Amino acid sequence: MHTLFVKFPRKRTRQVDIGGVPIGGDNPIAVQSMCDTDTRDVRRTIEQIHSLEEAGCEIVRVAVPDKKAADALPQIKEAIGIPLVADVHFDWRLAIAAAKAGVDKLRINPGNIGGKKKIQEVVTAARDYNLPIRIGVNQGSIKKDLLDKYGGPNPQALVESAMRNIDYLTEFDFYDIVLSLKASDASQTIAAYRSISEKCDFPLHLGVTEAGPQWPGTIKTAVAFGALLAEGIGDTIRVSLTAPVEEEVKAGWEILKSLGLRQRGPNLISCPTCGRLEIDLVNLVAEVQQMLERVKEPITVAVMGCVVNGPGEVRDADLGIIGGKGVYLLTRKGKIVFRTKEFADARTALLEHLDEVVASYKAAGI
């Protein structure tokens, strides 16, 4: 389906390379996630990263709370195909160990790493191993003096905290920096990123911290990301959910797809239920959605149960199903290719045509 998307202007930021995945500049907005496994459990961590890769994760982060976790990093890095980011707090030695272990980026808060001398040691290691550093400022980690100055962890406090942490690194002539300023509130997240975007040109990693369970967390994050991305703000994203980590990646891709910024996997269009329905549309859509889980190509499938909008909605879709009383129509680009009274027959025909459409996309290199 050829949807006409508005072209959102992109704020020009510095380009930073993360293990072969460039962010910033004119590069595509990358989708990230973070493992919820114990990094010291190498097998489980590798398995989860492979699952994240399959879901479309392009950069993955792991926690490095101690030396044993740092020692596990080379094995993990060797077994995966996407860039690996080490998340380190409080102990500068772990950041250096992670750099030596072969990670592709460090995520730290310079202010809690242990003073100027230790920050310099981390910067030296990052420079020696050609690693960027993400400064991660969270609403829950703002220093007390800034909380007192601004009356709480509001956007102004987040921004000044970020600027302070930038100074810790640029003092040592280090500019290979990525920034994130995360609040758990969508409006405060939007305000913080808008403000920092005006003050510097470092690439921005978008996130709503502690967004919540899958459903409300996805909605909250989509609101924040949608507003910022539509203004050209944001170079990489993570949807932080209390849910299986693969769901973070799926949600991230859906947000980018909804704005026409990236395309991966199918676009499923279905009409809302109303009094004109004569079929069980909810279960029909669920079954089609399950069929599409294996598809990676950006095909469009429309499932309609309405004679008012149905024909128009399937017109440009690669595949369409229109269901009505006693009949199912299967379409390709709006042309009817199969008609039946039984959904079982329509399902079989849909699978056959789905394979043909996917094969055509693969042949075209899409």
Secondary-structure class: alpha/beta
- Mean pLDDT reading: 91
| Coarse morphology | elongated
List SSEs in N-to-C order: EEEHEHEHEHEHHEHEHEHEHEHEEEH
Specify the biggest β-sheet: 8 strands, parallel
Distance between the termini: 13 Å
Strand content: 15-25%
Side-by-side strand order of the widest sheet = 8-7-6-5-4-3-10-9
Number of H/I helices: 12
Descriptive terms for the model:
366 residues; 5-stranded mixed sheet
Describe the structure.
The chain has helices at residues 42-55, 67-79, 92-101, 116-128, 144-150, 155-170, 186-199, 214-230, 245-258, 281-292, 310-314, 343-363; strands at residues 16-18, 21-23, 30-34, 59-63, 84-87, 105-108, 133-138, 177-182, 205-206, 236-237, 267-270, 300-304, 319-324, 327-332, 335-340. By secondary structure, it is of the alpha/beta class. The strands form 3 sheets. The protein has an 8-stranded parallel beta sheet. Strands 11-12-13-14-15 form a 5-stranded mixed beta sheet. It has a two-stranded antiparallel ribbon with strand order 1-2. It starts with 15 loop residues before the first strand and ends with a helix. The relative contact order is 0.10.
